[in-house]
Amino acid sequence: MANSAQARKRARQSVKQRAHNASLRTAFRTAVKKVLKAVEAGDKAAAQAVYQESVKVIDRIADKGIYHKNKAARHKSRLSAKIKALA
């Protein structure tokens, strides 16, 4: 357990930050799932609209360092490829 006042405060802060990061990771996964669901529905126009909204969420979370920028880019690329495959 933390002994100094500074260490106790950092422990409190880390609990709060961990909860915040967890919510952002959940938002990332939800954004990806929304696009996948739209692709499965088969409507290309709707899938592209959902994709545009999801890209904003994915990029914002990657910029904060919650996920690595390459992981975000990989997800965006794969989602885009699935949308393009709808013809």
Automatic annotation (TrEMBL):
ATP-binding found in the keyword field: no
Biased composition (Basic residues): 7-19
Pfam family, one: Ribosomal_S20p
Family matches, as InterPro entries: Ribosomal_bS20, Ribosomal_bS20_sf
Molecular-function annotations in GO: small ribosomal subunit rRNA binding; structural constituent of ribosome
GO terms (BP aspect): translation
Region (Disordered): 1-22
Record-level GO cellular component terms: cytosol; small ribosomal subunit
Family assignment from sequence similarity: Belongs to the bacterial ribosomal protein bS20 family.
Main function: Binds directly to 16S ribosomal RNA.
HAMAP family xref list: Ribosomal_bS20
Protein name: Small ribosomal subunit protein bS20
